[in-house]
Amino acid sequence: MAERRQQATITEVAAKAGVSVGTASKAVNGRGQLRPETRARVLAAAAELGFEPNALARGLLSGRSYTVGLLTNDSFGRFSMPVMLGAEEALGAGQMSVFLCDSRGDAERERHYIRTLQARRVDGIVVTGRRIEPRPPIDTVVPVVYAMAPSTDPRDVSVTSDEAGGARLAVQHLIDSGRRRIGHVTGPAGHLAARLRASAIQEALSAAGLPSGPDLVHFGQWTEEHGRRAAERLAGTHPDLDAICCGSDQIARGVTDHLRESGRQVPADVAVCGFDNWDVMVFASRPPLTSVDRNLHAVGRRAAQCLLETIAGQPITGPRQLPCTLVVRESSLQPLPDVLGLAADRS
Amino acid sequence: MAERRQQATITEVAAKAGVSVGTASKAVNGRGQLRPETRARVLAAAAELGFEPNALARGLLSGRSYTVGLLTNDSFGRFSMPVMLGAEEALGAGQMSVFLCDSRGDAERERHYIRTLQARRVDGIVVTGRRIEPRPPIDTVVPVVYAMAPSTDPRDVSVTSDEAGGARLAVQHLIDSGRRRIGHVTGPAGHLAARLRASAIQEALSAAGLPSGPDLVHFGQWTEEHGRRAAERLAGTHPDLDAICCGSDQIARGVTDHLRESGRQVPADVAVCGFDNWDVMVFASRPPLTSVDRNLHAVGRRAAQCLLETIAGQPITGPRQLPCTLVVRESSLQPLPDVLGLAADRS
C-alpha cells in the first residue's frame, strides 16, 4: 500500500501544460474561451498524467449528479436481484452510476436511505421489492419509478410483469395440448401473486368450457412440500386429472416428484407447468419443467428507462405491465396419438 | 408529477433566517466563527424548510466522497449477492453509500466501471465475484479489498471463507458420528473450490485411518444430476459406503434422491452432508440436509470493514480467511444403537 499512486490533480495538469489552474480547468471541463492549441496541450497533459475530471465537481456545476438510487427491501434477492441487475445494466452502461440501498423491509432504514440519496443529489430513484403487493409511495422530491411492486398512487410510474397474463399463457398451453381436467396448486391466498394467477386460470378454464372451481385449486405455501401434498390430494379427489398448472417452480417440482413416486408419468399421464422459470428448479426437475418467465430483468431495464425519461423531463405517469413468456419443456409435452392402442395396456 | 416539490436551497434557508448565504452555509456545515444564536436560527430555518446539506459539495470540501464502489462480475448472484449485501450493510448503515457495478465478467466493462468510480472520487472499492480463483488486481489509485475471490497479489487485502476448513468440519462430523466408509461427490476438478474441499476431506480421512483415494472421489458438475449418477456409481463400487460428503447442496440433494429411490435410508444406512447451506436446497431435500455454511454475508461485512480501516489510513495488507460453520440436520444424524437387534430385519 506504501507505493499507492495518488490521483493526478488539476494543479499538476496545469504545471505540466505550463498554464494557470483556471485555464487547465476550463480546458478539461470544455468551458470558456481558449485557443485550440492551449486546450490541446492541457488535454495531452491530463491524458499523460491519468487525470480524471472530478465527477463531484461536475455534478455541482451541472445541477445533476448522474447518479440514481436503487432501493430494495429484499435482502434474499431471488426476485429483486434480476430487477436490480436489469436496472443497473440500463443505467450503468451509460454515464449513470447506481447507489445500492437495501432497507431489509425496515421502514426507518428506508427513510434513512431516502435522506441519504437526497443529500447525494441523486437524479432519481428506482424502488423494488420481493412481492407484487402495491406499496405506499416513498416521500422524496426526486423522480421515482417502482419496479415489480407498484406504488399505491396510480399516478406514480410503475413497471410490473403481467402475472394474470402469464398464468393464462400456461393454462391455455395445457388446454391447447388437449388437457381437459386441470388442477392448480399455488402459494398463500394472502399473496396477490397467487390470487391473480389463480383467478386468471379459473377464468380461462371456464371460457374453454372445462371444469374449474375451488375443489381444483389448492392454495398453500410456495414450497415443494406443498406441491407434493396438494398433488396427492388432487389425485385422490380427481383421479381423472390430466394436468396441474402450478404457481411456482418449487411447487411444480414437488408436484412432479409426487406424481413420479406414485407411479404416474409426467407428461404422458399428467402435464405439469411451473411459474418463474427459475433455472435451478426447472432443469433439476424430472422431467424438466415448462414454466412462465416473468422477465424480471426486462422489468428492471424498463423501469430504469422510464426513470431516465422522467429525469429528462418527459411527462410519463401511471403503471406499465410487461408480458410474461412461456418456456415449454418436457413436463407439458402433448402425449403422442395412441395409434397402436397401447394406452389400454398401461392401466 | 406536476406538484413535485423542489429541494430547499441554501439561499432560501439564508432568506428565512435573515442572514447572508455565506453565514447560512457556515452554519449548516458547522464551519467558521458564528454566534450560537445565529447558528441556531439558521439550523431552525433549515429544519423547517427540509433543507439537506449537499453531499456533493461536502465531498469536494473534505476531499472524501463517502462513497464506495462494489464491483462484481457475477450477474447471477447466488454467491456474490450475500457478499454484496454484507458489504452494503456494513457501509450503508453509516454514512457510506455504495455504488453497484456489475461487469458481467467482461474485462472492458470492468475497466469502464473503474474509471467511472475514480471519476466519482470513491474512497475505495470492494471487488467480488462468483468463484474463489484468485483474480488479477484491479488497476486503480484508491484502496481495494477483494471479497471471496482474492487478488493474485499477496499484498492486497482479501477476505475469503475457509473452504478447506469447511470441508474438514463436514467430514470430521461424519467420522465422529461413527461413519467409516465415506465417499465424496463434488464439482469440476477445474474449480479451485472443488479441489480445496476434496483435498481437505482426503487428508482428514487418512489422518483418521479411514479409506480414502481417487475411487471414493467423484468430480463432475455442481448439479443434482451429477449427484444422482455419482451416488449410483459409488453404491456399485463401494456397497459398504455409509456416508457421502458432497461439494454442494445441489449435489447432496441428487445423492439423497438417488439413495432414497434405490431403497437406501438416509441417514440410517448412508449419511449425507452438503455444502453452501442454501435454504432452497437444504430444506427441500428429503430428509433436510446437514450443510456447511460459508458465511458469505460475514465475508462481505468483513471486507467492508477492512476497506473502512484502509481508508482511515490503517496499514493492513494480505489475505484473511473467515471460518465456515457446520449446520447439522437430519441427513447426517447418528444411527441409534440397535439395542433391539432390528437392523438384521432390514437386509
From TrEMBL, chains A, B:
Protein name, entry field: LacI family DNA-binding transcriptional regulator
Gene Ontology molecular function terms on file: DNA binding
Pfam family name, one: LacI
Keyword Glycosyltransferase: no
Domain named HTH lacI-type: residues: 8-62
Keywords: DNA-binding, Transcription, Transcription regulation
Xref: Gene3D superfamilies: 3.40.50.2300, lambda repressor-like DNA-binding domains
